[in-house]
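Internal tracking record. Fields below are filled automatically when a chain is submitted to the structure queue. Please do not edit lines marked as system-generated. If the sequence contains nonstandard residues, flag them in the REMARKS field before resubmitting.
Queue: standard
Priority: normal
Entity type: single polypeptide chain
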Amino acid sequence: MTTFDYAAFAELYPGKRYAKSRPVRYRRFATAAEALRYLVEDMPPESLRGAVLEVNEERFEAGQFGALYEDEAYPLARA
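SYSTEM-GENERATED OUTPUT FOLLOWS
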């Protein structure tokens, strides 16, 4: 994996299919670290199906969120 910039601006794009009970909507985050915290700590996994996080014009899919959140370089306190 290339070096991930946790301090970079991030955008969350919903997938075409997502849980109707708590849908993922387009969101902007000041930092990628904040976006990952939101995705991993606040969103149920079924709501992330097809979601994409864009950071520095690079796209990351739901299967990658957990690894980025658990990486030792993650700068925020984890739940």
